[in-house]
Amino acid sequence: MVAIPVDPYVVHCQWEIAHADLEHAKRALGVDEHEYWPVLQFYDVTNEDQVGRQPSFSVDVQLGAGNWYVRSCGPERSYRADLALKREDGSLAVIASAVRVTTPPSAPSNYADERWLPIRLGPPVGFPIDVREEVNRKLSALYGGQEQRVFESRLQGPLPANRGEEVRGKMGEPCGNPEPPGLLDQLLPVDMRAEVGQLLTQLYAGLHPEPPALAGNPFARDPFHMRRVGGELKALRKDAIADLTAWNERSFTYGASSR
Amino acid sequence: MLLAGKAAWRDFNPSPMAKGYLALVLHGHLPFVRHPEHEDFLEENWLYQAITEVYVPLLLILDSLVADAVDFRLTFSLTPTLISMLTDPLLQSRYLEKMDRLIRLLEMETTRTKWQAEFHSLAAMYHLQFTSVRSAFVDRYNCNLVAAFQRLQGLGKLEIIASAATHAYLPLLSVNPSAVRFQIQVGLAHYTLTFGQRPNGFWLPECGYYPGLDQLLSDHAIRFTILETHGITRARPRPRYGVHAPLRCPSGLAVFGRDPLASRQVWSATEGYPGDCDYREFYRDLVHDLDSDSLKRYVHPGGLRIETGIKYYRISGKTGNKQVYVPQEAERKAEAHAEHFLRSRAAQVESLASVMDRKPVFVAPYDAELFGHWWYEGPRWLNHLTRKVARDPKSLRLVTLSEYLRDCGALQPAEPPMSSWGRNGFNEVWLNPNNHWIYPRLRRAARVMERLEADHSGSDSLTIRALDQAKRELLLAQSSDWAFMIGAQTSAEYASYRTESHLQNFSRLSDQIARNSVDERWLAEIESRERIFPAQVLRPGSAAHLPRSTP
Known about the structure:
The complex is a heterodimer. Chain A is α+β, with helices and mostly antiparallel strands. Chain A has 2 domains: 101 residues, Immunoglobulins (Immunoglobulin-like, Sandwich); 121 residues, no CATH class. Helices cover 23% and strands 22% of the residues of chain A. Chain A has 6 helices and 10 strands, in the order E-E-H-E-E-E-E-E-E-H-H-H-E-E-H-H. The longest helix of chain A is centred in the C-terminal third of the chain and has 14 residues. Chain A is elongated and about 95 Å long. Chain B is α/β, with parallel strands linked by helices. Helices cover 51% and strands 9% of the residues of chain B. In chain B, helix 9 links the parallel strand 4 and strand 5.
């Protein structure tokens, strides 16, 4: 049996069954012919990994039809479907099964996780590294092993001791290293964009004869969540950004084509 | 040719001035229809009409843009079935015979309308147009329009992208992954054989996408494809920039989304430009007014009322009382609509500038047949639009999709859902109670093909020929056009006949191969009828070493 989504709410099932399979199912039920009827039994396996009984429903069908449009489905759900004979007590004898079928969504996703990966027009390769991991590692190295967040807070917040002065304990003994003078006034020690670009170029260099398409600017979004547009850092209207997808959906009409 | 393309790429300036990009994509496709066994076959006229109304006019306009040094870019998909027909000597010669008959009809028309000034000038216009198209087809393009498109690609003005072998609707073939792979492989091998290079992009027939297809395309070194709007907007995670920036699928494939506004302005039956009162009426063809003798002499010997493309009336509004077409008015409208389209995109660019950290791209894909066939003034509109964009580069710049990817930076990773550009956005156009009988038979045939290929690939040359023909028959049966026509009940009888006949031929061939008793005479007969996909195309891998196309 084959199950294919027609749209977010309808799944089409088509089957071809062998006489022996049908007879086997009848024997398994062990009751007279008028005490069972053919059904399509649908199991919602969207959250298959969760403990508990899978929701299910059945649709009465005619075996001889060879196909059925099941209109009780929901968008973005995964189903497993069995063609079965059903008894009044609810027990089933399966004749044929379809592989898992997933219906498409009927609306934009509410899940917003933004990561950005470069794309290139060179020879195909699997992306060789976890970019986020690499960037974090690079940042960590640059900040002397400290978390970026800790480092930034240190740059922005008040220091525990006077700058440039030796820190001493209650008894006047030297206590730790002195804070280097003027740290707060310094810019970050490196150009992150150049660093990350260079890093990726190095990673690609051994793999491709041609330079990666994005060597100059591999990330549109930098680790500081700021954007550089025309040489200026520009704060974006964050509230409006997510609406572009909704706006597209509102402007969209299904089937605006010759079909 | 390749060097020319590379030179053009070096010249490409990502245009720091432009605030956004416009990527016009025309999808050129017709189902494979070739019937040497009949002298004048009705459905072959789909090709002849498309040559006269769409492909030659578009090429003439693109050539004029090159001649005038207008900086333009266009993405064009040409399917293997269309390419095979455009390069077929039999169909080329039949086209010329057809044109000669129509030109004679127009000579008669100019005499007949001698005392009706408004009709007379239209008959003269069509006479000039048809003779010009014929002359361009023969003298300028040497009867080979594909070579003309290839030349424009070599100049870096056009990016030609590949498509599936016979325009199969892939989401419904996905039950047999081998069938999807074979459609992609043959489509790419055919492209490579035709153009001498590999494509970056792939047009999904009917924009039909399903999760996992990205991996198959990436496996075949495809870099991008185009989805219907909701294929992007409903991707997971939610796209940050909607359809105005491509997404990166898990496999690395870039997917562009169709801009809904740009589509609606051109496609919509109610709001779209083609429905304007001053444009030419599509359904009022001269053929409906011809007497029986003229019909047989100039249109079809059997007296079938096949559209001539000669139409004297304009749309005039929702009325049966149609007014006479005025070409000058239509030309003015085409220019005004091009201006309106451009202003609309410019307004979109302005509104997006405050919420995007990159320049937005507007991807506007259309069936090429819209331009000239359904919308007579479409090529003129395109001509005005491209020239206007070139005159005002501060707002928009025309790009090919490869060019955009080279310049766009990082993409948001996301997984697009199943979608198509058919009615209601999913599978129902190709899977409904009228046409669902096709699929069990296609699936069965695909399974048989897998077995045949495994069991007989090292057989004698006659068996290999029969295997190749079985592949052709299966590919042709998988064409989405038949399911569409049967589903929509337009030319349904012919579409059913084609599906049945290809599957029957496949079945007969597979039986003969299995029994090792190939009927060579019959095989030669069906090979000569279906002159599509030479043997090397059906055995992919031979052309994989060729270089990638340059945008």
